[in-house]
Amino acid sequence: MLKGLLNLFLQSNCPLCQRSTYDELCQYCARQLQSCHHKDPSCLWQDPIPIFGWGVYGGTLKRAIAVMKYENQPQMARPLGQLLGEAWLLNSPNRDNRLVVVPIPLHTSKQKQRGYNQAALIAQSFCQTTGQKLKLNGLERVRETKAQFGLSASERENNLVEAFAVGPELRDRCLDAPVLLVDDIYTTGATAFAAVQTLRQRGIAVLGLAAVATAVKDNHTKKSWASHP
Q: Hey, which family's this protein in (predicted)?
């Protein structure tokens, strides 16, 4: 009887489908999420900005990210960050294991409105899984920008001009390891490019970006960034 009451107490609803579950996700949604996994997470790992992506942005993974960001379910970041971290440990394209992990920041007004930065929560889970060093405030978003959704490639780029600044945890410090940026989604590369450019202009080495989901299935979009100085 005590065991039954304990199980009832520990039960919760799956944030994706509302089924009762003892885990973070029900078995059905966990299987559906795994089906979004990239066969080769490092297929976009090349210059000018190497990208490591756990899964393809669509299906259950798209739903999981939307629930995390827009339905006040920050706990979704933990399993997503863990999946990204496990994939990194198995498929890391980096031979040097020393990294400084920096999440892509939100502007303070947007973070206050949402209550959390999903990229920061994913980065925390990623570092718990991989053992890498986390710098939550390595970057700051100093200019409030429009939502990138619906903007053209040039509009996305202009939208992020001078949007980032080096944060207090990296400012005036000599790092002995490169930075790995972490975000929830990689799409056109505008956000990644702006963040990488901000760090590199201050002489900070950037290894690349690790994202839970990538909306890019080939190198066409990435190649367009090669023309940037």
A: Belongs to the ComF/GntX family.
